[in-house]
Amino acid sequence: MRRLPPEFPGRNQVIAALVAPLLLLTVSRAALGADDGAAARGAYLAAAAGCGECHTDSQHAGLAYAGGRVLLTEFGPIVSPNITPDEATGIGGWRLVDFVRAMRWGLAPDGTHYTTAFPFPSFAQMTDGDLADLKAYLDSLPPVSRPGMGGAPDLALLARARAAFGAALAANSPPEPISADPRTARGQYLASGVGRCGDCHTPQTWYGVPDEGHRLAGSDGWFTGKKAPDITSGPKSSIAAWSEDDIAELLKTGGTPDGDFVGGIMAEIVRATEHLTDDDRHAIAAYLKSLPLEPPSAGR
Q1: Which of 69, 195, 211, 240 matches a 20 to 30 Å C-alpha distance to 63?
Q2: What is the pTM (predicted TM-score) of this model?
Q3: Is 296 within a domain?
Q4: Confidence label for 168 from pLDDT (cuts 50, 70 and 90)
Q5: Is 221 left (phi over 0), alpha (psi -120 to 50) or beta?
Q6: Which domain holds residue 282?
């Protein structure tokens, strides 16, 4: 189950109430299959997704996953929330169904929508089992109380309406078809879903929805304020001449074929991808090398 009926401001609570019972049936199967390794698998996914990078205020020595990092987006500054299992100020009171609904459709437990600065359009591609494992890991963390961390971001009226409409569009977007080749499919799953490469490298529409006509073809920095290069195999790509080994090495060490090292937000990404297995890094590289030689549509 992936798509929701069209969502607009004022309808979220009704739709959430209708979806919740069906979603419970879906995710309960994953919950029943949980085992002692769930948290360990979830830790791997959290590291690969860089959850700790966004949800830790490292600049001010914040505790891991306790939120507080200020993220600059086109909707305005947004403070990352506390995702430790604290009952009052974190996600300790969330059921698995609440977690999956947030990760798949950007819906908070009260039915309100997150902005697409939270990359649920990418996380929507994750499997039920992986989402259950990820929650098991977050539930295993020490709870951290962060009073004042709750609530929706304080956005201007236009930004709030724009964010709500963009979130509704993203929630209804069909998932990307998975490659038929198993290794490329694994790389696609990690790059498009877990690792959310498109968050930076795919241009966004005015509503904050990925422009799938130019997937991974570079952006002007909608989310981070920094331009992200084209990482397809097209003529403007920054990695078109790179080998699969070159890409895998960058994901492991941050080193480029010319002896340089990445910085800025990409250095944060490498702090996530360095935790992947060699096989998974090479799978991502295989997926990127399999992308079309040119974007599906012209112009940017």
Answers
A1: 195
A2: 0.77
A3: no
A4: low
A5: left
A6: 182-290
